[in-house]
C-alpha cells in the first residue's frame, strides 16, 4: 500500500492485497476523543475515477484484547463527485474500558489506485 499527494487530494494504491479484508488503512486515537459521541462518522469522496470498496471499523483496544465494530454496510465508491457518510455506533461501556481506539478501513480488493478528495473522521453527537 502507498499513499502520496495528488493534484486533487491524495492517491492511495494497493497492489497484491488480500481480498480477505486484511489490508487496511487506519488511525489511532485516545478514547477521550470519542467522549459523549453517539456515532463515529467517516466522510469519504473520490476526486478522480476508479473504484474502491472497504469496511470502516471502530476498534476498541483493551488491556486484555480488542473488539471490532464495523459499519453496518461496506463503502463502495466509484467515479468522482460522490460523497458517502459511513457511521459506526460508539459503545459507551466499551469506550470507558478502552485504553485506545482505532478507525480502520479494511479493503475488499486485491488492488486499486484511487484519489481521495475527502477522507475525514467525524464525531456525531
Specify the biggest β-sheet: 5 strands, antiparallel
**What is the terminal separation in angstroms?**
33 Å
Alpha plus pi helix count: 1
Tell me the domain tally: 1
- Sheet-strand content, in percent, reads over 45%
Helix content: under 10%
**CATH superfamily placement:** Galactose-binding domain-like
Q: Determine the CATH topology.
A: Jelly Rolls
Structural class: mainly beta
Could you say which overall geometry the principal axes of the C-alpha atoms support? globular
Output the keywords.
mainly beta, 1 helix, Jelly Rolls, five-stranded antiparallel beta sheet
Report on this model:
The chain is built from 1 helix and 10 strands. The termini are far apart. A 5-stranded antiparallel sheet has the order 1-2-10-4-8, with no helix packed on it. Strands 3, 5, 6, 7 and 9 form a 5-stranded antiparallel sheet that branches. It is mainly beta and 125 residues long. It has one domain (2-124): Jelly Rolls (Sandwich). It is globular.
What topology does this entry show?
Elements: E1 2-6, E2 9-14, E3 24-29, E4 39-46, E5 51-62, E6 65-70, E7 75-78, E8 83-89, H1 92-97, E9 100-107, E10 112-124
Antiparallel strand pairs: 1-2, 2-10, 3-9, 4-8, 4-10, 5-6, 5-7, 5-9
Summarize the structure.
The protein has 125 residues and is mainly beta.
